């Protein structure tokens, strides 16, 4: 058994959850906030059999595609004062999947 910890954009989370339900993969969604742009994100937890990991990773790839957005430069802490009035192109979305071994699973 594996524990999948998936971190995805809020805009993609509900769509991913629907797809997981369609293929009978149980999951729990927890709201979270990203540190870089302070945008809403979701952390989705799911316990799956080892042979299901690739299927779930593929669903994340399909439903959580990266995209480009323009944000005010003042949202980016590493820019200096002369650039703060500009719009900056950043990559958002996509997904991160951590695959962790489960030593023990207890359901009560």
Helix-strand layout with pairing:
Layout: E1 2-9, H1 10-22, E2 28-33, E3 40-48, H2 53-63, E4 66-72, E5 87-93, E6 95-101
Antiparallel strand pairs: 1-3, 1-6, 2-3, 4-5
Helix pairs in contact: 1-2
How is this structure best described in words?
With 108 residues, this protein is of the alpha+beta class. It has a domain of 72 residues: Alpha-Beta Plaits (2-Layer Sandwich). Helix content is 22%, strand content 41%. The protein is built from 2 helices and 6 strands. A hairpin with a 6-residue loop joins β2 and β3. α1 crosses α2. The two termini are 17 Å apart. The model has no long low-confidence stretch (mean pLDDT 85).
Under the CATH scheme, which class of the domain at 2-65 and 94-101?
Alpha Beta
Based on Cα principal axes, name the global outline: elongated
**Beta-strand fraction estimate:** 35-45%
For the sheet with most strands, the description reads: 4 strands, antiparallel
Total of helices: 2
Biggest sheet: strands side by side, in what order?
2-3-1-6
Instruction: Determine the N-to-C terminus distance.
Output: 17 Å
Helical content, roughly? 10-25%
Query: What is the H-and-E element order?
Result: EHEEHEEE
Mean pLDDT: 85
């Amino acid at each position: 058994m594996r524990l999948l910890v998936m971190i995805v954009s809020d805009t993609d989370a509900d769509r991913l959850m629907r797809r997981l339900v369609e293929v009978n993969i149980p999951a729990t969604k927890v709201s979270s906030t990203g540190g870089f742009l302070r945008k809403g994100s979701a952390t989705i937890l799911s316990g799956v059999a080892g042979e299901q990991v690739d299927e779930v990773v593929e669903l994340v790839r399909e439903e959580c595609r990266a995209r480009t957005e323009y944000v005010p430069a003042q949202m980016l802490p590493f820019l200096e004062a002369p650039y703060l009035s500009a719009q900056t192109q950043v990559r958002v979305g996509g997904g991160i999947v951590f695959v962790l071994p489960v030593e023990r699973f207890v359901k009560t």
